[in-house]
């Protein structure tokens, strides 16, 4: 690899290594003393980064006031754009857990070589890996993580303490980091560059929640609340120290050994994958800037990619304008979230139907309780209609009884004219009969039910109102991928920063085609797009496969003519694999300035037979032997030849159309013993 990729304005260019080194040296010797980095002590808070919001001097990767890099522009430059893949298994396998412990393993050198060589063959030129993995407070007994706090129970695993970490002291797993060492070395040899995110928002491999949980007191108590990842002073200081240790790590897999920060094979360090707060809000700007400065203060020739989830939360102005943050990315899937309100770290949803319904139900419940308590006759029936008529008749008879007619008349006069002197003696009218009593059990039961209903509605209303203030943004009507790209470019490019589609996929082939067309025809500010995801050949034959959900599978070299139940499927492992891989090859060739014809190269390396043993079954008197082999990058089919030991005819062609496209660990069977001599033409 003979060049660095640097930022020039809102695009990326390749600059010869010597020129980039000279530019970095010039900046280093002319810059005033840089402010202290946030990781200097565990007590440093993320907020301290706000006092160093701008650098005294631009780096070789940052443009000057007129938008041009004065050092780089005097050298030979070529634009740098790419269409490529995410390869999440490049240094940590999620598709091959340990058969005994279930823990993840590192890939072999063959597997890494195959992955990187496949990208180079496809003219991808860039691989985005997945993040480092992190032990958490709930899995302290498992060693298969890149970063851990508790290592006392792990025998045979090599650990290196991370300088300047405390409470707890953190360690790097040297066995797993050796796989990252070799990945960087292999990428360098193939002129393929890497984008490496530091940490994940999600919990697949242990992300921000896992890292923060290691700082709960005491360690190992899973019930203790973890501190906040982005703001807690100890957590942030330890994370910044980890970033420094990783960027400054010496890679002994290359000759001569060099630090990661000195290797042009690392295109960019990404602050994280789809980062947002646990409540769905924006990552604090001072945290992002502190990570960027931590990287730049080690060596300024590598790029920093903002790993915040801009598609959901939006990008912050101070991060967009800061010279230490070089790149921004969006992840495009068939779900997109609304941005947060400007300047808000929390996302407040609208007053939707759950709030309205629970509010109305609560009001109804309150009225029911009041009525049942004060006016139960409005709801609880006392008698039937027949009983009511009989009761009224008895009351009328009781009222009149045997009273004389004049008494009744005088009584009426007395009632209508209370001021008239009344000397007539009359028989008093008996009192009104008592009201019929209500059902002794129905009213309390209804009152209890109404009270429970009201309390339930009140609880739901409180929950609806509280989650309204912390919920992730609500899904918005989907817009086409090209429209999303145009919107994001309009947001990013005014700040003179490049943009890339960091992830996309799990969608209809037509959407892939539309996005790739938009990327290849966009200007240089759109530096590329990366499909999710590519899986490589396995150590024991076949390919690693991965179900992405929704009917989509991961992709493979040449679209792999997948095999299901022993039958070759022309479409590939997934129904869209052949068509999508053809689109990716064409787009990668277009943005890299090469023709599709140049992809027709001799497959390499030669396949390696991994014979499974002697005959396992006998069909019609013929022994059947299952065979696995390691395939060749760029091979679409294989010619199969067999030979019988002691036979005079030598090797005989069994088929010219052999396929390796089976899931890792599977076997391909043919009559008698088979030998795979060379890969077919691609």
Report on the structure:
The chain is 30% helix and 17% strand. An eight-stranded parallel beta barrel has the order 4-5-9-12-13-14-15-16, surrounded by six helices. With 682 residues, the protein is α/β, with parallel strands linked by helices. The chain contains 15 helices and 27 strands. Helix 2 (109-121) runs parallel beside helix 3 and helix 9 runs antiparallel to helix 12.
Structure summary:
With 682 residues, the chain is α/β, with parallel strands linked by helices. Strands 4-5-9-12-13-14-15-16 form an eight-stranded parallel barrel, surrounded by six helices. Strands 21, 22, 23 and 26 form a four-stranded antiparallel β-sheet that branches.
Observed structural traits:
disordered C terminus; 8-stranded parallel β-barrel; 4-stranded antiparallel β-sheet; single chain; globular; 15 helices
Topology of helices and strands:
Blueprint: E1 3-8, E2 11-16, H1 17-30, E3 78-79, E4 82-86, H2 109-121, E5 126-128, E6 147-148, E7 159-161, E8 171-173, H3 174-189, E9 193-197, H4 208-213, H5 233-247, E10 250-251, E11 258-259, E12 266-270, H6 285-296, E13 303-306, H7 310-313, H8 317-321, E14 327-332, H9 353-374, H10 385-400, H11 405-416, H12 442-468, H13 481-492, E15 499-504, H14 509-521, E16 526-532, E17 547-549, E18 552-553, E19 563-564, E20 567-568, H15 577-592, E21 608-611, E22 617-619, E23 622-630, E24 638-642, E25 652-658, E26 668-671, E27 674-679
Parallel strand pairs: 4-5, 4-16, 5-9, 9-12, 12-13, 13-14, 14-15, 15-16
Antiparallel strand pairs: 1-2, 2-3, 6-8, 7-8, 10-11, 17-18, 19-20, 21-23, 22-23, 23-26, 24-25, 24-27
Helix pairs in contact: 2-3, 5-6, 9-12, 14-15
């Amino acid at each position: 690899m003979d060049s660095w990729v640097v930022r020039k304005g809102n695009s990326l260019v390749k600059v010869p290594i010597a020129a980039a080194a000279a530019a970095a040296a010039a900046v280093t010797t002319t810059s005033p003393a840089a402010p202290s980095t946030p990781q200097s002590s565990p007590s440093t808070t993320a907020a301290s980064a706000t006092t160093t919001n701008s650098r005294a001097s631009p780096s070789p990767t940052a443009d000057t006031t007129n938008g041009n890099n004065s050092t780089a522009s005097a050298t030979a430059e070529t634009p740098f754009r790419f269409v490529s893949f995410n390869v999440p298994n490049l240094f940590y396998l999620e598709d091959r857990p340990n058969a005994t412990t279930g823990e993840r393993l590192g890939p072999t050198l063959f597997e890494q070589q195959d992955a990187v060589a496949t990208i180079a063959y496809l003219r991808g030129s860039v691989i985005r890996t997945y993040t480092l993995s992190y032990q958490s407070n709930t899995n302290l007994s498992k060693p298969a993580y890149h970063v851990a706090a508790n290592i006392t129970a792990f025998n045979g695993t090599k650990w290196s303490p991370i300088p300047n970490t405390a409470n707890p002291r953190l360690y790097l797993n040297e066995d797993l980091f050796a796989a990252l060492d070799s990945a960087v070395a292999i990428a360098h040899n193939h002129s393929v560059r890497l984008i490496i995110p530091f940490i994940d928002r999600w919990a697949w491999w242990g992300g921000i929640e896992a890292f923060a949980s290691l700082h709960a007191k005491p360690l190992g108590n899973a019930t203790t609340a973890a501190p906040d990842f982005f703001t807690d002073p100890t957590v942030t200081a330890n994370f910044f120290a980890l970033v420094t240790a990783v960027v400054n790590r010496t890679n002994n897999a290359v000759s001569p050994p060099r630090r990661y920060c000195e290797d042009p094979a690392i295109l960019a360090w990404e602050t994280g994958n789809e980062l947002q707060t646990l409540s769905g809000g924006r990552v604090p700007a001072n945290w992002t800037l502190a990570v960027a400065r931590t990287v730049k203060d080690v060596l300024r020739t590598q790029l920093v990619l903002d790993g915040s989830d801009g598609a959901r939360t939006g990008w912050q102005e101070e991060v967009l304008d800061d010279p230490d943050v070089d790149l921004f990315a969006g992840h495009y899937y068939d779900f997109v979230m609304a941005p947060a309100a400007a300047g808000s770290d929390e996302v407040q949803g609208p007053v939707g139907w759950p709030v309205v319904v629970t509010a109305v139900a609560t009001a109804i419940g309150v009225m029911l309780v009041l009525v049942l308590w004060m006016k139960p006759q409005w709801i609880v029936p006392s008698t039937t209609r027949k009983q009511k008529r009989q009761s009224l008749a008895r009351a009328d008879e009781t009222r009149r009884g045997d009273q004389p007619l004049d008494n009744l008349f005088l009584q009426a006069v007395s009632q209508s004219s209370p001021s008239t002197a009344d000397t007539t003696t009359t028989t008093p009218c008996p009192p009104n009969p008592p009201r019929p009593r209500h059902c002794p059990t129905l009213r309390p039961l209804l009152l209890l039910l109404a009270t429970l209903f009201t309390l339930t509605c009140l609880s739901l209303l409180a929950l609806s109102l509280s989650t309204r203030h912390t919920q992730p943004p609500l899904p918005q009507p989907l817009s086409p991928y090209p429209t999303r790209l145009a919107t994001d470019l309009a947001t990013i490019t005014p700040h003179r920063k490049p943009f890339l589609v960091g992830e996309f996929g799990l969608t209809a082939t037509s959407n892939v085609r539309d996005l790739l067309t938009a990327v290849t025809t966009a200007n240089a500010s759109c530096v590329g797009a990366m499909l999710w995801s590519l899986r490589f050949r396995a150590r024991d034959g076949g390919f690693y496969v991965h179900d992405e959900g929704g009917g989509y599978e991961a992709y493979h070299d040449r679209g792999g003519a997948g095999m299901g139940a022993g039958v070759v499927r022309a479409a590939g492992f997934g129904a869209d694999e052949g068509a999508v891989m053809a689109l990716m090859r064409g787009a990668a060739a277009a943005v890299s300035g090469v023709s599709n014809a140049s992809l027709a190269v001799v497959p390499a390396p030669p396949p390696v037979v991994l014979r499974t043993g002697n005959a396992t079954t006998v069909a019609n008197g013929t022994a059947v032997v299952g065979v696995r082999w390691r395939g060749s990058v760029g091979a679409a089919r294989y010619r199969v030849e067999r030979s019988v030991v002691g036979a005079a005819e030598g090797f005989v062609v069994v088929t010219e159309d052999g396929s390796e496209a089976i899931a890792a660990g599977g076997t391909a069977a043919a009559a008698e013993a088979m030998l795979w001599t060379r890969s077919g033409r691609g």
